[in-house]
Amino acid sequence: MNDKSRELFVFSGSAHPKLARDIAEQLGVMLGNVKMEHFPDGEIFIQFLQNIRGGDVFIIQPTCYPPNENIMELLIMLDAAMRASAGRITAVIPYFGYARQDRKDKPRVAIASKLVANILTAAGADRILTMDLHAQQIMGFFDIPVDHLYAAPILYPYLRKILGENAVVVAPDSGSVKMAHAYSNALGAGLAVIAKRRTDSVSVECSHLVGDVAGRTCLIIDDLTSTAGTLVAGEQLLRKEGAKRVIASISHCLLNDLGVERLNNSGIEELVTTDSVPEITTGKTNKIKVLSIAPVMAEAIRRIHAGGSLSSLFNTSVK
Known about the structure:
- The protein is built from eight helices and 14 strands.
- It is of the alpha/beta class.
- The protein folds into two domains: 3-150 and 294-314, Rossmann fold (3-Layer(aba) Sandwich); 152-291, Rossmann fold.
- The protein is globular.
- 43% of the residues are buried.
């Protein structure tokens, strides 16, 4: 059957139903009907309550906290859709968990992101739609098509508005330099790089700064944060070097209680992020600005369903 003749079905897991509803609204469709239950021992039960045979099925499920529960739920949804004879199954994963475990950097450790890629494919996914992977080489871990979108075009217009003149984009570590360079070019800002050393899973040390930040507005960019250690340590170094204002921008806001406390106690004026994961900091801080990725995710789904090109959605320049 030609992809274009397949009926479009959009389903949501339990990880982020609000985002799924927003995406469905952008598409002009109703979310599909699926039954989800937990057995007394914690096992997950999934049943699609409508005929999806031959359909083009999109399952929306970021694998955020709790990652193991959300990944397992997604796997069971994929398997159920495959056994219901769906024509094509796309796993829409706005935030891809386990992406930080993308290489063997210590003896006797797993490459967990490769493992997750393998089991998603084995469970029945025909393609993956995701956003701002922690490491782009993860796309190569899949033997199925991966459409990798960027949050940058969603963030740029708001960042331009709040940064003003004489701004500088700051990479908080060497791994963020390429991303910071793209932001710098798009926003017409300067570029600076911080040398970071992680001391443990929740703490970092920032020792050196390359670039001129004195008297300037600094934008620290990164793909994700959970404890805010990198952002806060970077802000402290920038203030020490004479920065006038410090703003942060990340794609995926995974802040826990420690991260919220650090953010509130820091000199970071605002943390600009997206709704790729549920907002769990409501009422705990007024420093977070959330922008919706629903329009761009919906447009990607629309184009995948119609067999169109997604190239323009990969454009990270300011329009």
